[in-house]
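Q: I have two molecules that I believe assemble together. Could you output structure tokens for the complex as a whole instead of separate predictions?
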Amino acid sequence: MPVPRQFIINETIRNLYFHVPMWFTMMLLFAGSFIYSLKYLRSGKPEDDIFAAELTVVGIVFSILGMLTGMEWAKYTWGAAWSNDPKQLCTALSMLTYFAYLILRNGIKDEEKRAKISAVYNVFAFALSIPLIWVIPRMVDSLHPGNGGNPGFNKYDLDSMMRMVFYPAVIGWFLLGVWITTLRIRLKLIQHKEENSY
Amino acid sequence: MRFCKTLMMMAKKSALSILLLMLTTLIASAQSTQPEMADTMRSNGKIYVVVLVLATIFAGIIVFLVRIDRRITKLEKK
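A: Yes, here they are, computed for all two components at once.
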């Protein structure tokens, strides 16, 4: 598939099919986790808590992959792996809040207490991630496309040929992320059943 | 005799300066021909950056799946 010829990014424009869907998948999983946390707070079912926790774990894995691929990409196009770009900083902050979610869960022994506190925390973490990832980087100058004064990939970089690859790739990564999450959820549900059976 | 000596010294000095000049031009030309670093990563339109990114994602997902596999094994042994 041909891609637009551009200086500096050259062939690395193809990373669009890998780096960007990582973050999309992370966002999907975190959104799912947010919904299940709200559900838990309404229903109080331990299954909903398991769903929320596992969605967050896989979301964090995708965020780490997105961060690593972004740093590798930046090394050869922006000149440095970490250049304190606003989007890098804010995303790192958001990732830290989710790392804290895992630590919080590990820190509480009582099951019901853990589920309730982490559900409330997760709602806050998701609410915080929206301005950190989607709003603040767009209001200031950033090296990322589509922020500050830079043109977005959408305007003229992402041509129809790239769209033909990009959208199916996003769907594929979504499916992979959701499938891995279901594996973990099924595992946890079996464990939960065993623990409560005797 | 003395004149000869000074002539010799001048010749030596000029030879040295010419050598120095040649050396600097050589270094300058060498610098101008290869300014780019990390040559393999930047060769062929930086395609190896894409390879690196793919390898990272693949390795990350494999490690994660192996961890899930271990948990399943643990559960099976119960």
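A: One point stands out. Residues 39-77 of chain B form the longest helix (39 residues).
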